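Suppose you are handed a protein chain with no further information: no name, no annotation, nothing but its sequence. What can you learn? This example shows the usual starting point.
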Amino acid sequence: MEETKKQLFTRGMKDGLPIGLGYFAVSFTLGIAAKNAGMTALQAAVTSALINASAGEFIGFTLIAANAGYLEVMVMEAVANARYLLMSCALSQKISPKVGLLHRMLMGFYVTDEIFGVSVAQKELRPVYSYGVISMAAPGWTLGTFLGVLMGNILPLRVVSALSVALYGMFAAVFVPPAKENKIVAGLIVISFIASFIFNKAAVFVGISSGIKIIILTVIISLAAALLFPVKSEGKEE
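A reasonable first move is to predict its three-dimensional structure. Written in structure tokens, the prediction is:
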């Protein structure tokens, strides 16, 4: 039996709740970075509401603090967030052709690593499910940044450090369940970790930015997985 829009939205909220809680914790440290860059709580909150990208915002706040020019900020943001183009392309394959441009733009605007993780696991990605996820995830990110500016410098250093580690726990919550169900997915995750470690340590890759490294690894590993372990279409006859 097909889920109703209300059921889809509710399921999206349930999937988005842990993401929102993780975002709320992690974005505290983002608020501290914004405060160090001379931004007010409102300015930082608006930035989080419009960007929705941890690495991009950290880079932006760092460049602002260093009085970087507009062009430099634009180039660095494009590099840091380019991976979302790949994620959006992957998610577009799960969206019905009947879904309009406005829905697609709104869904694409809120694509993050964690939202991508729960979205790509859907058999068919419908806008109402995405809005359910977004309704829980996005406010957590914005509110955490806002409070981070106001309270971040008051909290003990150990607490701030603990909050920054929460992001890794959130990542683990995204990829562990599918890895437990599929050995191929688990193997690809291990390979991704190893390849990422090599890219970060090998001298030959030192001059490449972290954003470009992510794109290269994503394309190579995804292409290899698609060629070696193709997923058969359900409508295709054996």
